[in-house]
């Protein structure tokens, strides 16, 4: 019996290749950040002007306002004085009567009326704007009987002191001139029914502030 001769295989044997584990994303990012990081420069001391004497100095922090001890003492004294003034104002406002707030609100509204109508003559008579007497802000509907329209600018117009003081507004002549000025619809709105109104101190303060701002705008535009 003939036996076949066994020949060694000429094909190279496959060996298992070991693949390196993939680096995690967070690790890669951390490595990139570390590589790109550069040593930070030390922050330079901030220069600012002294609150008191305006001399430039090196501030140690955002709370450092003054350049020296004398200036610091002055700064504290000024702040204390401001606080005391603020407290005094608050105490005065707390005891201020409502009638005073009402008078200030009316004065602010009247000032707007006089500025708005400064080129107009009397709403109740034929006196021209060139009349040398005293001019008032005259209510068409009286303040006592119609508090809801007390601060309504449509209800208040420039009038001479004669009509306003001695003729109670001279309403018979006031009305037709008012219709010619603002229109029948606006006059009828004024003469219509209104809810009874009693102004709070906060409302009066707001009216004063609002009309002071209006007066400023009027003066700037004329």
Written overview of the protein:
This protein has seven helices and four strands; from the N terminus they run H-E-E-H-H-E-E-H-H-H-H. Helix 3 (98-116) runs parallel beside helix 7 and helix 5 (171-182) packs across helix 6. The chain has 222 residues and is mostly helical. The model is unreliable at 1-6 (pLDDT under 50). Strands 1-2 form a two-stranded antiparallel ribbon. It has a two-stranded antiparallel ribbon with strand order 3-4.
In short:
With 222 residues, the chain is mainly alpha-helical. The chain contains seven helices and four strands.
Offer a few descriptive terms.
mainly alpha, 47% helix, elongated, disordered N terminus
Shape label:
elongated
With strands numbered from the N-terminus, the spatial order across the biggest sheet is 1-2
Mean pLDDT: 85
List the total number of helices. Answer: 7
How many strand units?
4
Order of helices and strands: HEEHHEEHHHH
Low-confidence stretches are 1-6
The biggest beta sheet reads: 2 strands, antiparallel
Based on the structure, what is the oligomeric state of the protein chains?
single chain
Approximately how much beta-strand content do the residues carry?
5-15%
Q: Rg, please?
A: 42 Å
Distance between the termini: 134 Å
The share of residues in helices is 40-55%
Structural class: mainly alpha
Protein topology:
Elements: H1 25-36, E1 46-49, E2 56-59, H2 69-95, H3 98-116, E3 135-139, E4 156-160, H4 161-166, H5 171-182, H6 184-191, H7 201-221
Antiparallel strand pairs: 1-2, 3-4
Helix pairs in contact: 3-7, 5-6
């Amino acid at each position: 019996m003939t036996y076949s001769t066994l020949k060694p295989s000429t094909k190279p044997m496959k060996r298992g290749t070991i693949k390196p584990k993939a680096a995690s994303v967070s690790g890669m990012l951390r490595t990139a950040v570390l590589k790109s990081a550069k040593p930070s420069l030390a922050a330079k001391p901030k220069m600012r002007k002294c609150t008191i004497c305006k001399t430039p100095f090196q501030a140690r922090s955002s709370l450092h306002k003054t350049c020296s001890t004398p200036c610091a003492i002055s700064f504290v004294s000024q702040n204390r004085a401001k606080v005391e003034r603020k407290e005094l104002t608050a105490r005065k406002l707390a005891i201020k009567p409502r009638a005073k707030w009402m008078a200030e609100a009316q004065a602010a509204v009247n000032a707007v009326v006089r500025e708005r109508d400064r080129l107009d003559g009397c709403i109740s008579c034929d006196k021209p704007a060139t009349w040398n007497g005293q001019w008032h802000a005259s209510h068409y509907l009286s303040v006592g009987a119609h508090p809801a329209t007390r601060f309504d600018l449509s209800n208040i117009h420039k009038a001479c002191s004669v009509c306003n003081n001695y003729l109670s507004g001279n309403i018979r002549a006031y009305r037709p001139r008012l219709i010619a000025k603002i229109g029948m619809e606006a006059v009828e709105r004024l003469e219509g029914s209104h809810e009874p109104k009693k102004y709070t101190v906060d409302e009066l303060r707001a009216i004063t502030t609002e009309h002071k701002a209006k007066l400023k705008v009027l003066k700037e535009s004329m």
